[in-house]
Amino acid sequence: MVSTVKLAELWQRKGYRVVVLCMGRNGMDNGKLKIENGFSKEVMSETLTIYRVPDVFVPDPWNYGIAFGFSGIAMRLALEIRPDVIVVNKVLFWSSIALLRLRLAGHPVLLITDALVGITWWPRGRLAQVCAAIYAWTLGWLILRFATKIVFFHPQPAPVLSRLGIAAKSTVIPTGIDVAGQQVEPRLDAHSVRVTYTGRLESVKGVDDFLAAASRVKKDHPELLIRVVGWHTPDHPLVKEHAHEVEFTGLRNDIPALLAETDMFVLPSYSEGLSNSLMEAMRAGCACIASDVGGNRYLIENGVSGLLFGAGDRAALASHIERLLADTTKRRTLGEAARKRIQSIFSWERVGQMYDELFQSWTA
């Protein structure tokens, strides 16, 4: 996950040595890669070593990886390395099951997560939701109760934390973003207005709602340019349906440049943690429209630093797009407020200080 990569970079920047155990394919063989006992080891630098365990991936709407033997490898590394702090990322990932074994062996473990799948975060589809709820209130609940301390990326409902019995050991530290050198003014072109979505084309992201709403507006406003940035399969049904009116860029590594060309940014997720895409768009000064779920309502002050709408409400989304399409001043003020909010609350400098305090109290 992107949040894991960003936090690993932050902790190295703060002077910590980071060892990562994750699931996935091996890295590039650059002379640093070693394969042993079914997993790989790659020494990236003096402060970063990455171990990878091959996994089997179950696609959308599950988006779930399975790697047998992962917990055993985590135990082995904990004994060999003897880290000062053990961090497990996310609840209900296969990798988070290692937390139970580590705690039973006497290791304190910090759990960090952006959402509670099956409790405050839901996939789309009734069957997937039922399975998520069962998983959450059985194995997920055990993982939460076993964790020594829990860090959420955005605030969770107090009644939920109390019901789970984890309120006393929970805190909030958001993920952050680099703010230096990112003073980009919103693009103001009298001849066209661009609305952009960046992210995966997964059902929970609500891209179908975005395309339906934006296409509806475009019928009356041909100056509206619609862009979708993110990897997708060549035969994705949304690409087939909207290719004649929407620019699908595929996977790109120049997101800041694309956002500099963007007037409006839309994140229409049905469930969301603390979105890196939304933070990047706010930093770039885009006028942001997002569904009123999860971390979106933590990032955006409705009507001040962006606009919120009910998840799945295509009419409301289309209305927001049409309003900002017609109001250049509103786009500008929302974008400026969004950038200021990111700079004041979600800078890596501020987030790094919070983690420094947490780790110092932990090791003490």
Our Rg estimate from Cα atoms comes to 21 Å
Report helical residue fraction.
Answer: 25-40%
| Uncertain runs | none
Order of neighbouring strands in the sheet with most strands = 13-12-11-14-15-16
Task: Note the beta-strand portion.
Answer: 15-25%
Q: What is the N-to-C order of secondary-structure elements (H for helix, E for strand)?
A: HEEEEEEHEHEHEHEEHEHEHEHEHEHHH
Shape: globular
Task: Report the mean per-residue pLDDT as an integer.
Answer: 91
Give me the number of helical elements. 13
The count of DSSP E runs of length 2 or more, i.e. the number of strands, is 16
* Structural class computed from helices and strand pairing: alpha/beta
What profile does the largest beta sheet have? 6 strands, parallel
Structure report:
With 364 residues, this protein is of the alpha/beta class. 40% of the residues lie in helices and 20% in strands. It contains 13 helices and 16 strands. Strands 13-12-11-14-15-16 form a six-stranded parallel sheet, sandwiched between helices. β2 (33-36) and β3 (39-45) form a beta hairpin. It is globular, with a radius of gyration of 21 Å. It starts with a helix and ends with a helix. 37% of the residues are buried. The mean pLDDT is 91.
